[in-house]
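Exercise 7.
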Amino acid sequence: MAGTTGGAAHGRLRGRVGLGAGAAAAVLVLSACGGDGGSLEEVELQAGEGGMMPPVAPTEEEGTTTVDADGVSMEVPEDWEIQEEGGNLCLTPPGQPACAYGSLQLLTGAADQHPQNWPLEGDAFAADDGWADNTDSCRSLNTAASGNIGVESAELTNPAEFFVHADELKSHHAVWDVSCVNGDSFEVRMWFLPVSDVLLYVWSADPQYDQVYERAAETMDTTAHGN
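Solution. The predicted structure, written as tokens, is:
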């Protein structure tokens, strides 16, 4: 049964694909993992530079769709924007800039594509400062768009926790509580499979979508990955 267990990380694209400026921004975000020298965080902040929107409350009855990235599938709300680039997906909740606050990212070959081999290098997925490759910028709802608010501290709140997915593989499940110099805080979540190098990543969690993140993780299935 899918879910969390005490104590490391082992989804297909169907659904509507957002076009226009949002999709272009997402392509930049996902391309940042491709080793072109730019950091994932820098490009994501550019994608949100127009300003974050107040969170839009989800409807009580919400349909889901199955998305796929390079043979890794999972279920997400059908009204979320879906951007795809190079075997990676970015899923953005209604009313938010692409791949910013509240977004969910599914990356295949995550560390292999990343210039700093994050989050595999140095077991960053299990470290207090491992929530990003560049931990300089606050990602709270009020500050993420500006990109000029610093981070004061970060804590891994669930060390040595594993999560069982739909394919019965276990991932390293990490949740970080990050405090900013202006008094804001935000939460980053990660499910990482080091052997298959698959990463499910919540850039800055919106609490109202807790069940969305959990459902995506529970239904994540890597059975067709690499076939």
